[in-house]
Every structure is written in C-alpha cells, then in structure tokens.
Design a protein that fits this description.
Layout lengths: L1 H14 L6 H19 L2 H27 L7 H17 L4 E3 L7 E6 L12 H4 L7 H12 L2 E9 L8 E10 L10
Antiparallel strand pairs: 1-2, 2-4, 3-4
Helix pairs in contact: 1-4, 2-3, 3-6
Pfam family, one: TRAPP
Family: Belongs to the TRAPP small subunits family. BET3 subfamily.
GO cellular component, one term: Golgi apparatus
Length: about 190
Amino acid sequence: MAKQYKTLGDEIWKNRVEPMNAELFIFTYGSLVVQLVKDYEDYDQVNQQLDKMGYNIGVRLIEDFLARSGWGRCTDFRETMEVISKIGFKMFLNITPTVTSWASDNKSCSLVLDENPLNDFVELPLDAQQQLWYSNILCGVLRGALEMVQMQVEVKFVSCVLRGDDISEIRVQFVRHLQEEVPINDE
C-alpha cells in the first residue's frame, strides 16, 4: 500500500502541481523567521508563532490536498500518516519523509525528514541552536490539516539537523477524533 501512496504522490507532483522557485520560497521563509526573531526576541515565542502560522496554513491547505489528490477518508491514523508522508509532503515540498517509530497502540509515530528544503542555506547562531525549531511551521501545518479532518494531534520536533542532531524528526501523537459540529445558527 505504501508503494501505491508513493506512486500517487509522484504522479501528482509531476502532473498537478505548478512548480515554484524553490530558492525564492526558502529565502522568503528564512526572512520570515529572522523577522520573528527580531520581533519577539524570545525563541519560545518564535516557535509558538511558527506553529500558529503553520496551523492556519494547514487549515487551508487540506482543501487543496483533497482536491488535487482526490483522496477520500483514511481508515485509521496509520494510513493517515502514510498518506501525509507519501502524498502530502510530496505535493507541497517534493520530499517524502519516512514514517517510523510507531507506538504499540498505533497512536504515535515519527516522520523522519531525510531532507528538508526549509533548512537549505540555513545555519543557526549558537544561541538559537538549543531553543529555536526553525521548521516548526511544519508542525502547525500538520496539526491544522489533521484537525480539519477531525483528528486532534500533538505535533513537535524532537530533533533537527540544524541543531546538530543526526536527523530531523517530527513526533505526531494522535489524541482523539473530533466530532463534526455544525456552527451555531447554521442551517
């Protein structure tokens, strides 16, 4: 099944995604992070802002993902993470993280990013290496997108090559299924 997801992700990337200049994207994101550091002067606040921005992006990005991929509902959290890894990340960043380190209850796993285009051309200052999660926007994107498909998750980076770690790893913990709610006074 994982091969089917990868094949679909590759097909969507080649035929349904309008390419953009990767370097422009990377440098724009870098400028955004630098501005947040200047504005907040506190790396914890910068991490929170990146997560919040990512969440807002994820809330909107899920519609694009569903429209372009034609994907329906996943059967469980495990399938959801495979689809995100092999189709979602491929569609939007042209990378395919490895889904690994599943908990015995299948409610948490890690996404290992062998490559992360957001990290290209980046070197963190020493004071930032232990506090700043430079690509934390990805955690927010995952959280926002999954919330829109009624999955509450906790998402956090546990390691990053920019901080001197061997790998970049995002840990995703399934919390609960959300109930679909009709907005108040909506008929």
